[in-house]
Design brief:
Pathway: Amino-acid biosynthesis; L-homocysteine biosynthesis; L-homocysteine from S-adenosyl-L-homocysteine: step 1/1. Its EC number is 3.13.2.1. Belongs to the adenosylhomocysteinase family. Keywords: Hydrolase, NAD, One-carbon metabolism. This protein is an alpha/beta fold. The protein has 2 domains: 236 residues, Adenosylhomocysteinase-like (Rossmann fold), CATH 3.40.50; 151 residues, NAD(P)-binding Rossmann-like Domain (Rossmann fold). Helices cover 39% and strands 14% of the residues. It contains 16 helices and 15 strands. It has an 8-stranded mixed β-sheet with strand order 9-8-7-10-11-14-13-12, covered by helices on one side. It has a 7-stranded parallel β-sheet with strand order 3-2-1-4-5-6-15, with helices on both faces. β12 and β13 form a beta hairpin. The longest helix is centred in the middle third of the chain and has 24 residues. The radius of gyration is 22 Å and the shape is globular.
C-alpha cells in the first residue's frame, strides 16, 4: 500500500537521511528536523490546554523526583505527548522515545523534540519494519540502560522480552496505558513471566472516563468527518463493543441523529446499552443494512471477511480500538479485490461485482490516525499521562518490596489528585467535608473518597 505521508514530502526514508539538530546531535530519526520550529509552536499551544501537567511540572521541578530515571517510551507522538516528555525531563528523567502507531506521529512535533535534545525515533507512515527498527534504536544503545518502561499497547515491553530479557534486571517497573497492553501484562503475570512490577494506568478512573469515554465521544465524529465528509443524521451505525470507548462513540452518533446498534459479549455492558436506548444485536443480523461499522472491543477478528463480503455498497468500516486486529484487513489483500487510494487514510476496496467498502486508516486507530484529538481531554490523559508521570514517580521511588512482580492499579489518591488539578480550568469549586461529616462517612477529609474498585 502507498505511504500515508503527504505526496509533497521528500520520499526518502528517514532511515537513509543524515540529520543533525542545532547542537550537532544525530541521536534521533524523524521525517525532517527543519520542521522543528512549527512543532514547537504546536507544543506551546498544547501547554496552554494542559494545566495539570504544567502544575505538576512546576510543583515537582525543584525536587527532581525522577533524577536518575532512564525512561524508554513507546506512545503516540503528538503535541500532548511532547508536553509529557518535557515534564519528565524537567523532573530529572532521561528519555528515549518511539511511536506505538505507524500513522499517529506528528512529524513536526517529533522534529521539535529531536531539536530540543530528545532521542526520538518516529515518523508518520512507517512500515512494519521501520516500526520495530525505531523501538530497537530506543532500547539497544551503547552505554544507556533503561530502568523504567512507559508503554502504550505493549509492543515495547514485548520487544524487550523477546530481544533483551536481561534488561529487566535493571528495570524498576512498567507503566502501561492501553487495554491491549494491560491485557498482555495480565497474561504475563498469570503465566508467572512478569519479572517487574507494572502499573495499569488504563483502568484508572481518569483514563477510563476522560480519555476513553469523553475523548472518543468528541473524536469519533471528527475522524469520520475529516475522512469522508459524511452526514450522520439517519445513518445506520453498528458499534462493536460498549466499553468506555463504545459508550463515547454511541453517545456522539445518537446525538447527531444516527440509528445506532450495539454488539456486546458482556451482559453488564449489554444491559447498559439497552438502558441507554440502543438496540443490542449480533453483527450478522445488521451487517447487510448498516452504513457504518465501528469496532472498539480490543479483541481480534471482530469484523471478518465474511462480514465484509456481506456489507452493502459504500459501507464505511473503521476501528477505534488500539490495535489493527479488530477488522480482518489481511483477508482483503487478495487478487480479486481492487484497492483504490481515495485520499490519505481512505481506501476503497472494490469487489468483482463493483460493490465497494470505504476502509479508514487500513483498520488502525481512527481518531489518532485520521484526525487530532481534543487537547483538553488529552490533557486529562496526559495527566493520566501525568498519572503516567505519577505512576513512574511512584514505581521509581517505591521502597524495595512495596511492589511485587504483579500488575497494580494506580492508587485512588493519585486518580483524585489528577482530577483535582483540572478543576481550576472550569472555575470549579470543590466542597470540603467538615470533621463531623468525615467521621460519619469514615473518610479522611482529604480523600481518597472512593474505594479502589470504583
Amino acid at each position: 500500500a502507498a505511504s500515508y505521508t503527504d505526496s509533497s514530502d521528500d520520499e526518502t526514508s528517514p532511515r537513509d537521511k543524515q540529520q543533525k539538530n542545532s547542537k550537532g546531535s544525530s541521536d534521533f530519526c524523524v521525517k525532517n528536523i527543519k520542521q522543528a520550529e512549527f512543532g514547537r509552536r504546536e507544543i506551546e499551544i498544547a501547554e496552554q490546554e494542559m494545566p495539570a501537567l504544567m502544575a505538576l511540572r512546576k510543583r515537582a521541578q525543584g525536587e527532581k523526583p525522577l533524577a536518575g530515571a532512564k525512561i524508554v517510551g513507546c506512545t503516540h507522538i503528538t503535541a500532548q505527548t511532547a508536553v509529557l516528555m518535557e515534564t519528565l525531563g524537567a523532573l530529572g528523567a532521561q528519555c528515549r522515545w518511539a511511536a506505538c502507531n505507524i500513522y499517529s506521529t506528528l512529524n513536526e512535533v517529533a522534529a521539535a523534540l529531536a531539536e530540543s535534545g530528545f532521542p526520538v525515533f518516529a515518523w508518520k507512515g512507517e512500515s512494519e519494519d521501520d516500526f520495530w527498527w525505531c523501538i530497537d534504536r530506543c532500547v539497544n544503545v551503547e552505554g544507556w540502560q533503561p530502568n523504567m518502561i512507559l508503554d502504550d499497547g505493549g509492543d515495547l515491553t514485548h520487544w524487550i522480552y523477546k530481544k533483551y530479557p536481561n534488561m529487566f534486571k535493571k528495570i524498576k517497573g512498567i507503566v502501561e496505558e492501553s487495554v491491549t497492553g494491560v491485557h498482555r501484562l495480565y497474561q504475563l503475570s498469570k503465566a508467572g513471566k512478569l519479572c517487574v512490577p507494572a502499573m495499569n494506568v488504563n483502568d484508572s478512573v481518569t483514563k477510563q472516563k476522560f480519555d476513553n469515554l469523553y475523548c472518543c465521544r468528541e473524536s469519533i465524529l471528527d475522524g469520520l468527518k475529516r475522512t469522508t465528509d459524511m452526514m450522520f443524521g439517519g445513518k445506520q451505525v453498528v458499534v462493536c463493543g460498549y466499553g468506555e470507548v463504545g459508550k463515547g462513540c454511541c453517545a456522539a452518533l445518537k446525538a447527531m441523529g444516527s440509528i445506532v446498534y450495539v454488539t456486546e459479549i458482556d451482559p453488564i455492558c449489554a444491559l447498559q446499552a439497552c438502558m441507554d436506548g440502543f438496540r443490542l444485536v449480533k453483527l450478522n443480523e445488521v451487517i447487510r443494512q448498516v452504513d457504518i461499522v465501528i469496532t472498539c472491543t480490543g479483541n481480534k477478528n471482530v469484523v471478518t471477511r465474511e462480514h465484509l463480503d456481506r456489507m452493502k455498497n459504500s459501507c464505511i468500516v473503521c476501528n477505534m480500538g488500539h490495535s489493527n486486529t479488530e477488522i480482518d484487513v489481511a483477508s482483503l489483500r487478495t487478487p480479486e479485490l481492487t484497492w483504490e487510494r481515495v485520499r490519505s487514510q481512505v481506501d476503497h476496496v472494490i469487489w468483482p461485482d463493483g460493490k465497494r467498502i470505504v476502509l479508514l486508516a487500513e483498520g488502525r486507530l481512527l481518531n489518532l490516525s485520521c484526525s487530532t484529538v481534543p487537547t483538553f481531554v488529552l490533557s486529562i490523559t496526559a495527566t493520566t499521562q501525568a498519572s503516567r508521570a505519577l505512576a513512574l514517580i511512584e514505581l521509581y521511588n517505591a521502597p524495595e518490596g512495596r511492589y511485587k512482580q504483579d500488575v497494580y492499579l494506580l492508587p485512588k489518591k493519585m486518580d483524585e489528585y489528577v482530577a483535582s488539578l483540572h478543576l481550576p480550568t472550569f472555575d470549579a469549586h470543590l466542597t470540603e467535608l467538615t470533621d463531623e461529616q468525615a467521621k460519619y462517612l469514615g473518610l479522611n477529609k482529604n480523600g481518597p473518597f472512593k474505594p479502589n474498585y470504583y
